Amino acid sequence: MSKFDDLIGQALTEEDRALLASHAEPGYLSQAMGLFRGPMSWVMWLVNVANGVSFLVGVYALWQMVNATDALLAVKWGIGALFLFQITTLCKTFMGNRMEANRMLREIKRVELQLSLLRADAGASE
Q1: Cα(51)–Cα(57) distance, rounded to whole angstroms?
Q2: Which residues, other chains included, contact 14 with Cβ-Cβ below 8 Å and sequence gap of 6+?
Q3: Which stretches are transmembrane (predicted)?
Q4: Residues 78-95: pLDDT tens digits?
Q5: pTM for the full predicted model
Q6: Helices 41-67 and 71-125 meet at what angle, rounded to 10?
Q7: Where are the domains of the chain?
């Protein structure tokens, strides 16, 4: 794949390279904060709040399990804590999948930009 990228890089002008560099992949935190913008932002905020609440209540349930004097009560708190931590994992997985989908869309847009630049260069040289 790097040879292909090198061939594309050689075919581009300095202006094209600068344009592509301005559309480079953002860092992890920028990608994570990007989940909270756009048309799906309200869903991400809802999932993030549900994630935080389920984690905090799960920690409380775990604490109650550890401090329970009755074995049946400890099992009930433990099952609740396990369920809440699974919800936390599900929320994080959902957000991670959305972040990966955003990365793929960004890469597709970069490829489209590269193709349009190459097509424009080929049209200008004719």
Answers
A1: 10
A2: none
A3: 42-63, 75-95
A4: 999 999 999 999 999 999
A5: 0.70
A6: 150
A7: 38-119
